Recover the amino acids of this structure.
């Protein structure tokens, strides 16, 4: 059983040992979101940075907010970012053309010479001593994203390969924990009454041992077992009708007895195709370590499996535009700024870059979209927008 470890003692551990403890702490947040702040402190120290946040953004509404934060960032700068600078952030529009879980830095979006000329750098980052930031998407819908961001100051330096490597070790586990919390909303659940509390949720919940033997199911889970479109109980073992998904989950269940780190980064969100053609998603939460151990021991379970119907995955308008015309992240940013802000001088001022830079990107956009006027670009973007958008 992984014991709770203070930040100072944890920081003194070897990296492999710290990672094992950290992964367990991350999964404990699925049962108790109040744990996120101290866990974020450990994540920040492990990856390397000055401040950290779990946040969300809506690129269409140009708004966002923080779920949890940790570090020395002044709350004023945190709030003014969402009030004023969110639409100027190089990450805001490019977030739709980067891969989920893949760490990205400011310098992946803009060269340093251009970054330091932007308004958000001069007015927001530089006054705080922020020289770089590492951002990882953990969830994405049509218009919004959930993400983790780690800010780096002069002492931390720029995001490097070692920083990215450490981030890749923890991000899949963060994503698994947050997706489970999003699906089942465990804020009021207590480990002692874990399964009973979950009887009222819409997602099918199944407690299983390392061999996949079913030891408990909630009401929604029993309904799925009765319908047999998605899964069934065969000889007391839980079996998915989708062979690929069944194999992936069987491998995950088999590792749960070896601790949280052994669960690995595969199968964070396992897609399932039901017999009737409908699509579902499964998430696995280990129950053999940390604060989840009591819940698992009560039912002699090694893992909790959550199965729910998948939402329709429609590309966001920015993502669809970028894919259709093979635009780079910066070209997409300039295109959307032209539509929203106006002409080249206005866009250059808003983005904090030289007019010549905007003109260079605009020329490439015209060539790729086979257009010649800014009015054509406005029509192009409007054509990708949802007719139901208000």
């Amino acid at each position: 059983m992984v014991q709770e470890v203070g930040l100072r003692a944890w920081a003194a551990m070897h990296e492999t040992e710290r990672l094992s403890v950290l992964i367990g702490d991350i999964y404990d947040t699925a049962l108790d979101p109040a744990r996120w702040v101290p866990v974020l402190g450990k994540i920040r120290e492990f990856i390397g940075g000055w401040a950290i946040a779990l946040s969300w953004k809506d690129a269409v509404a140009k708004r966002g907010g923080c779920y949890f934060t940790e570090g020395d960032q002044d709350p004023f700068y945190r709030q003014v970012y969402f009030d004023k600078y969110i639409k100027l952030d190089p990450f805001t529009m490019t977030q739709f053309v980067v891969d989920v879980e893949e760490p990205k830095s400011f310098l992946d979006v803009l060269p340093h010479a251009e970054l330091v000329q932007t308004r958000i750098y001069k007015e927001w980052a530089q006054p705080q001593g922020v020289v770089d930031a590492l951002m990882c998407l953990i969830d994405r819908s049509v218009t919004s994203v959930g993400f983790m961001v780690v800010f780096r100051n002069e002492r931390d330096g720029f995001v490097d390969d070692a920083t990215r490597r450490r981030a890749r070790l923890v991000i899949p586990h963060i994503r698994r924990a947050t997706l489970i919390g999003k699906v089942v909303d465990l804020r009021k659940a207590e480990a002692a009454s874990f399964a009973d509390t979950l009887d009222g949720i819409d997602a099918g919940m199944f407690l299983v041992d390392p061999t996949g033997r079913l030891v408990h199911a909630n009401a929604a889970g029993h309904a799925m077992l009765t319908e047999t479109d998605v899964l069934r109980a065969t000889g007391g073992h839980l079996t998915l009708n989708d062979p690929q998904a069944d194999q992936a989950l069987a491998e995950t269940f088999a590792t749960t007895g070896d601790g949280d780190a052994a669960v690995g980064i595969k199968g964070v969100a396992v897609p399932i195709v039901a017999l009737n053609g409908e699509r579902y998603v499964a998430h696995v939460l280990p129950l053999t370590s940390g604060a989840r151990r009591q819940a698992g021991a009560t039912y002699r379970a090694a893992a909790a499996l959550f199965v729910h119907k998948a939402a329709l995955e429609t590309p966001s308008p920015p993502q669809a535009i970028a894919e259709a015309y093979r635009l780079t992240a910066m070209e997409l940013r300039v295109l959307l700024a032209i539509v929203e802000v106006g002409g080249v001088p206005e866009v250059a001022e808003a983005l904090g870059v030289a007019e010549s830079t905007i003109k260079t990107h605009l020329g490439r956009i015209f060539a790729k979209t086979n257009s010649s006027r800014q009015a054509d670009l406005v029509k192009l973007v409007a054509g990708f927008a949802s007719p139901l958008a208000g």
About this structure: Residues 186-192, 386-390 have pLDDT under 50 and may be disordered. The chain is about 45% helix and 20% strand.
